[in-house]
Structure formats: structure tokens, C-alpha cells
Amino acid sequence: MKRIVFIAITASIVLTSCASNPVVDPNDPNKNTKQNAAIGAAVGALAGAVIGFQNDHSGGALRGALIGGAAGGALGAGTGMYMDKQEQEFKRALAEEQRRSQIEIERLQNENLKITMNSEISFASNSAKLTPSFHNTLDKVADILSRYPRTSINITGHTDSRGSAQYNQQLSEQRAQAVKWYLMDRGMASNRIGVEGRGESQPRASNDTQAGMQLNRRVEMLIIPNNDIQ
After folding, report:
1. Residue 152: helix, strand or coil by DSSP?
2. How far lies 65's CA from each of 4, 98, 106, in Å?
């Protein structure tokens, strides 16, 4: 009987927490903070209820749910706010690059930020050498990343399908590594940055057209918040 009551309590708390999440304006710059605070509260409530039930089969579940909900909400809001601010800085600093379709900035549902850099303006053809004109853009990226140290960065290179798969894989790895080296030269710690190449294996569009191949030649930078942001 106690197990049934426990399940009912926790389910009710989680559903109530999720349902109370206000309708957020899609243009609100703090929308992710608000949404993640509600999600964090729901998850925290469930976790707290489980711990409370294990330690005290009477009122422990409810007390644990209330404490966990508050803690989870604060954690979700903290991460969301941290990434909200970083996203807005990237969009302001790279507004011209976005206007020219040289860079895309995307906020993912798991709070990660993804910056996609068009290889047409970042690298010479069939080369892993950064173009001088792209240095200014990477300087902006490095400046913002240095002011948000509680994130890690994963850089992934991609190519179109011209050339052999082996060559494309190698080129994609070299281009990702070139971006990492540039960021390190601007003061970023190497242990914050991971690199990988995907070659031609993950196209965004068909390689049958020039436009499609241009979309496929890119470097993606995934910015991931640390787990301890509050």
C-alpha cells in the first residue's frame, strides 16, 4: 500500500511541476532558463521523492520531493541562464557573419549551443589552413568562450563527397584540429576542446549539386555546459 501511495505522490508532484510551466514567448531571450527551471524542478522532485521514500517510508517522500524540486529548479535555471547569456553574446558578436550565411548559431534542446562554420570562408579549397579573413571571426568566438569557462567544446569537421573517403576523413580531422589550435593560441585550455572528423559521412544536403556540397563542407562547434552550473 505504501508503494502505491509513494508512486501516486511522486507522479502527482512531477505532473504538477510540468503543468505549472508557464507558456513562454518564443522570442523571450530567457525562454530556455524558464523552461529548464520547470524541467529541473520536476526531475528534482522525482529524485528527491525516491531518496526520501528510501530513507523514510512515511513523510520522507513528500519532504524529499519538495527539497529536490527546489534544488532541481535552481540547477536548471542556472544552466539555462548561463547558456542564454552566452548565446546572446555569440549572436551579437557574429551578427554580420550570420547575415552573410557564413555562420549559423543554434540552441539545442539539451542546452548545448552549436555553431556551424561554412568551410568556404574558413579554409582554402582542399586545405586545412585557416584563411586570414576568418581569423577575426574566430577571435570573436575565442573571446566569448574565454569568458564562459564552464563549458567544454567539441569541434567536428565535415566534407563533401568529392575525393576518396579516406582523404575526406583526414581533411575533416585536420580542419577540426586547425580550429582547436587557433583557439588554444588565443588562450583556451586544451582540455576544454575535443576534436573529431566525420569526413563525408554526415551530409546536410545532397552532394549532387554545388549548393549541396557547399552546405556539406563545414566545421561544427558544439558548446556543452558543465554539469555543476548553478
Report:
1. strand
2. 16, 44, 34
Render pLDDT for 173-197 as a digit per residue (tens, 0 to 9).
999 999 999 999 999 999 999 999 9
Q: Do residues 175 and 157 make contact, with C-beta atoms less than 8 angstroms apart? A: yes
- Can you tell me the distance from the alpha carbon of 199 to that of 214, in angstroms, rounded to the nearest whole number? 14
Residue 178 phi/psi, 5° resolution?
Answer: -65, -40
Rounded to whole angstroms, how far apart are CA atoms 25 and 69? Answer: 24
Position 187: which residue type?
G
Range of the domain at 166: 94-225
For 108-142, the pLDDT digits (tens) are 988 999 999 998 889 988 999 999 999 999 999 99
* Mean pLDDT, residues 61-77: 49
Per DSSP, what are the bridge partners of residue 7? none
Segment 9-37, tens digit of pLDDT = 444 444 444 444 445 555 554 555 545 54
Q: Specify if 230 maps to a domain.
A: no
Contacts of 21 (CB under 8 A, 6+ apart): 34, 35, 38, 39
Residue 116: CA count within 13 A, CB half-sphere:
15
The pLDDT assigned to 1 comes to 52
pTM of this prediction?
0.69
Q: C-alpha distances in angstroms, 77 versus 4, 26, 83, 205, 224?
A: 32, 17, 10, 36, 16
How many whole angstroms separate alpha carbon 53 and alpha carbon 32?
31
Whether residue 137 sits in one domain with residue 50: no
Are residues 196 and 98 part of one domain?
yes
